[in-house]
């Protein structure tokens, strides 16, 4: 059986928090997941199989503006993506990434961006293998490390 993708529900929070805390050094608090869900519920999706959440991805849309003037262009931004450590390297991450990219395309975004820890070679390779390029760096993005900014045309 293969995973299904569905929208996040509030009752998923405990599982999302568990995956988050085993995936990141500075896990997001539950209140942030609730805030993000209220802000863009259509861009918070989970992968599920047999009632078990295997991973999630959270995105947001940004409108490209210069000097306060809209240029009628949208960009997708991946805020967070994580897969249960028992399900990594099984295609769940790719499935989630493809889902959020599809949702960004439906919203007429032309690019997608994300930030990743500089030391996270596994994640950087994962994104590069899926068409992302490293386009910059954000100093001290994390409390102990810089982030690499990655982007991909949609």
Structural class: alpha+beta
Stated plainly, the CATH topology is called Aminopeptidase
Order of helices and strands: EHHEEEHEHEE
- Percent of residues in beta strands: 35-45%
Cα-to-Cα separation, first versus last residue: 29 Å
The average pLDDT value, as a whole number, equals 92
| Unreliable sequence segments | none
Could you give the count of β-strands? 7
Can you tell me about this structure?
The chain has 154 residues and is α+β, with helices and mostly antiparallel strands. It has a single domain (4-153), classed as Aminopeptidase, CATH 3.40.630.30. The protein is built from 4 helices and 7 strands. The protein has a 7-stranded mixed sheet with strand order 1-2-3-4-5-7-6. Strand 4 (69-83), helix 3 (92-106) and strand 5 form a beta-alpha-beta unit. The radius of gyration is 15 Å and the shape is globular. The mean pLDDT is 92.
Task: Please give a handful of descriptors for the protein shown.
7-stranded mixed sheet; 154 residues; 29% helix; alpha+beta; single chain
Task: Summarize the SSE layout with pairings.
Elements lengths: L3 E4 L5 H11 L6 H10 L4 E6 L2 E15 L2 E15 L8 H15 L2 E9 L3 H9 L3 E10 L2 E9 L1
Parallel strand pairs: 4-5
Antiparallel strand pairs: 1-2, 2-3, 3-4, 5-7, 6-7
């Amino acid at each position: 059986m293969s995973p299904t993708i569905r929208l996040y529900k509030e009752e998923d929070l405990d599982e999302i928090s568990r995956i988050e805390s085993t995936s990141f050094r500075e896990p997001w608090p539950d209140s942030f997941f609730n805030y993000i869900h209220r802000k863009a519920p259509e861009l918070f999706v989970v992968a599920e199989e047999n009632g078990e959440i295997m991973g999630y991805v959270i995105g947001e849309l940004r409108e490209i503006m210069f000097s306060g003037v809209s240029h009628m262009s949208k960009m997708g931004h991946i805020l967070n993506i994580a897969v249960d450590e028992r399900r990594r390297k099984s295609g769940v991450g790719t499935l989630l990434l493809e889902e959020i990219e599809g949702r960004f395309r439906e919203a007429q975004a032309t690019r997608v961006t994300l930030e990743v820890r500089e030391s996270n070679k596994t994640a950087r390779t994962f994104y590069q293998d899926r068409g992302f390029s490293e386009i910059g760096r954000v100093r001290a993005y994390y409390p102990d490390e810089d982030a690499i900014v990655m982007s991909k045309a949609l």
